[in-house]
Amino acid sequence: MDGHFDPFRKAASGWIFHCDADAFYASCHMAEDTALRKLPVVVAGDPKSRHGVIVTANYAARNLGIRTGMTLGTARLLCPEVVAIEPDKPLYRRYSQALHGILSQYTINREPLSLDEAWLDMNQVLNFNDDPRPVAAELQSRIAEMVGISVSIGVSVNKMLAKQISDWNKPGGITLLRHQDIPDKLWPRPISELFGCGPVTARKMTKLGIVTIGDLAEQGVAEIMHRFGWHGLTLRLRATGDDNSPVVNPRPEDRRSVSAEHTTAYDMAREEDILGLIGQCAEEVSRHLEQLGLVGYTLSIKWRTRDFVTHTRQMVSYAALCDTQNIFRLASRLWAQSGEKKAIRLAGVSVSRLKQPSQQLRFWDE
Q1: Which residue, 42, 147, 228, 331, shows the most beta carbons closer than 10 Å to its own?
Q2: Does residue 3 belong to any structural domain of this protein?
Q3: In terms of residue numbers, what domain contains 224?
């Protein structure tokens, strides 16, 4: 695919921005109710239960040690006054649309990553001789004024470096990394901070003495390829700042999948309840596929048991998947095949291998 990592592509000639909203879900609620801005606020799966899991926390709460994934019971031990709010997906979508609407005014080359973050290719606006910080500051101000939330912006010579640094000075930071500053600013950081280096890979590299990003940058290509394959080579290239992946404003048909998932407010064990949740996800996926004008040919289900272990199953469909009934039928079959006996706290449905629906000729069209 055109947007994949490609070290041989021609390098950008101007600055790349990575814009990332600060504590997005909590920020949306604080924009709706400004009285919340000075309070420790968390968004949690079940605000009424001490076992509810925190989805995100604002920075007032983070400063008290409250973190994503923590239970509300633990958070309230740290701060009895913490304000817990139930997730509101329509609210987040509305704020996301407003955020991306402003980002799209700065460049047509915009690649969304999620509801609250995107890459901006500023090649047509700025070159490397320009100071990008005034433009980044103006962008932050416009988002704060028109949307009511704050963003942090990483500015660098390519996508991966911009993504890497955008959270260095949160919240509300602007971080600039030039290529010549990589040895001093990037390489001393731990290997676990390298974008794309997961916990398992980081542990393996640490055991081999690759403790910092600079350690990886100094490794021989053949040795890294031998131990970690192409993924290792990708990480090494990122460590040296050698990434020429383009910023791609995806067309609907460029999407890899359409998915929906929901975390339950309580541990769910009854079959009819679980199938009801799967049916809700199937309906949302179907509606989104219809909006995009796409069909899919691979269906996956995902569930998380009460012990926080995540499982997935998938199957190929020879018939195009789009309507709710067919998606739910296959998802129910996958669930039955799983044989899961434990209570679950999350279920999701995903359709991938997306394509435009084929146009079949009918005799009366001729």
Answers
A1: 42
A2: no
A3: 186-241
User: How long is the chain?
Assistant: 366
pLDDT digits (tens, 9 = 90+) for 83-100: 999 989 889 989 998 999
Question: Which of 136, 159, 180 is the C-terminal boundary of a domain?
Answer: 180
CA distance 171 to 37: 13
Strand ranges (E), 173-295: 174-177, 257-268
CATH of the domain at 199: 1.10.150.20
Same domain, 131 and 209: no
Q: What is the pLDDT of residues 6-57, one digit of tens each?
A: 444 556 668 999 999 999 999 999 999 999 999 999 998 777 777 778 989 9
The residue assigned the tokens 């070290």 is 7
Does the annotation count 117 as an active-site position?
Answer: yes
The pTM of this model reads 0.68
Alpha helices in 293-360 (DSSP H): 324-338
Per-residue pLDDT tens digits for 176-221? 999 999 999 999 999 999 988 888 899 999 999 999 999 999 999 9
- 157's tokens: 């010579």
Split into its structural domains, the chain has a count of 3
